[in-house]
Design brief:
Rossmann fold, alpha/beta, globular, single chain
Amino acid sequence: MRPLNDHDLLVSLEGIDRTGKTQMVKAIEDALHDRGLLVYTVHDPPRLDPWEEVQREFLDQETDLSKVGLSFLFLAARLDGVQREIIPALSEESFVIADRYIDSWVAYHAHRPAAFQPGFQRGPEFFVVLDQEQVQHEMAPLSDPKERARGLLTGVHARLSDAGLLPFPRRTWLIRDDPEEALRRQGGEASVWETMETQQRVAEVYEWIAKREQRRVRVVDREADDVDRQRQQESDRGDPDSGERLDARRRRPERKSPGR
């Protein structure tokens, strides 16, 4: 089901590490700028204070944080980025391109279902701001721990979306890539997430998301497809992020990114 508050001007690119998402985001941004459109690019976690330092010191390193605490630190960064960047940009009718967004949280944390087992055994008491009965009802049929972890995290996103705190993207491109090939492109210092086991499990969850969210998610094979060409084809077919709606936003002054 499409969330009630998803936004036609918000799109995202997802995928395992080292797939070239950032370069693809830049190519799409340049193509839209060439059409005279107002474009705003965001990252997840956001490149804002204090999150860049938090990412270096905690999110991408081995820490003493529990896996549940770490996953919700990522969520806090995302919600802060939404309030400080995405919502202001959307309010100005900017076309927002997210280099990772909601799906990365599920993919990178739901592959570790054991981390959430205590919550499953007692029920999700720590989601006091959510409708606990609804969350428990949605999770009840899921006997597989992996499915329960995925259902839990996607359920959190759904509740935040229903509350108007987390706009969903109109379109998401999932860049499918082979984890072994992706890790061979590794340059510089690797993060704690860049191991073969983690990337393989993350890729598996991304495939689950793509199957579950077929209306929103388009899978693009990194070796076989051109992301920018596919976006242009969808634009030519009259997707909500193209055509007359885009024409109405031509030739507006570019909004400057805070803190960059």
